[in-house]
Amino acid sequence: MDDLTLQLSxxxxxxxxxxxxxxxxxxxxxxxxxxxxxAFGAFDAEFCVRMRQVLSxxxxxxxxxxWGTHDLTTAENAAFANAVMVRYxxxxxxxxxxxxxxxxxxxxxxxxxxxxxxxxxxxxxxSIIIAYELYCGLCQAVxxxxxxxxxxxxAAMGTAGGxxxxxxxxxxxxxxxxxxxxxxxxxxxNVRMGDLSExxxxxxxxxxARGLFAARLATAGVSGPxxxxxxxxxxxxxxxxxxxxxxxxxxxxxxxxxxxxxxxxGQSAVDAAIFLHDRLQGGVIERVTIEVNQTxxxxxxxxPSRWHxxxxxxxxxxxxxxxxxxxxxxxxxxxxxxxxxxxDPLIFQLMQRIEVIEDxxxxxxDPNTSPARLTLWLSGRNQLVxxxxxxxxxxxxxxxxxxxxxxxxxxxxxxxxxxxxQAMMEAVADLPSAxxxxxxxxxxxx
Length: 446
Hints:
Distance between the termini: 45 Å
Strand content: 5-15%
Radius of gyration: 21 Å
CATH topology of the largest domain: 2-methylcitrate dehydratase PrpD
Strand order of the largest sheet: 4-3-5-6
Number of domains: 2
Number of helices: 20
């Protein structure tokens, strides 16, 4: 095995044996609850319904139930379907760095395996911390998008590491699990360019399910390539050198939660627009500039489709659309991406008066931030300016338990009893001392 694969296998071993601080355990618990909130917020979306139908047919006797249902399927299919719900609204967490991504795409796969293995609550949380370490480490180590590789590869690798812990693999087999996950899941970055397709919500979840499969293969003694990162034809052949970080604390602490159903690179801009909405006092907006870093400009403000979104996948990756909605309405909600809203003439007219500009100072700054500055020119030559460095939910501006519970309440389907949401919150809160996941699984599938 190349040195980096061995290093990562050893890191999984270190986190397996380490005494985790309450802060790190709480970070994992919070991200699990946030993922559940996102999943149930998307439960009734037509696409999520369709995916559940596909992935639970035919039903598997004795299988794993999809969240919120009694439909039984394979563990890998359940991991995929549940994670699609987590991802669909673009409200789940984010890591920033040389590469951005959504590490909670991996959580449903780890819940499924933890349920199958009948482990304790703290072991589930530990598997999440391990998975985040690998996912976030790769995002810190290499510019995947510039090499045409999607963030999904990190979901496969991270899930393989977390699953390897739950499966009790030794370090040699952990290394093979990582290798198998990486070699088979170098997905294309094209999934996030131009008019975005429904696969945007599937790329990370699919890779996470394949990471679970890779760990199972390693359990059976299947070997992976020995130079997957730095060997001939390895990942670094495509991406260039991979410099793995050496953090003082687990990398899960550097991930960020979202309050808006928008690509993370638009969170600060939406926050700024909401603050400006409260200051407009009836003023007529003549022109808007949005200044962001290079990544936000590239992903959310450089392609012409961002001024003419035809589906929710493109709209929630459009700075003009998301900022226009926030300026006009004072918030951005999942309902703002309905077909009717996408063709709202007031939103469209304001979008055409919005310009997105790269601020090179922002680009040269901390890659773990995604700041934004909005300038509004109003009739009468009045000007309003708002700058946000740390969006609400960023590790530098975290949301608290009360705000997270409010997020769950806002997303909770009307037809479901509130008591189920309360039961899930209580089950997740008790996980650090829970001897099993029975209470959590019962709340997810009442």
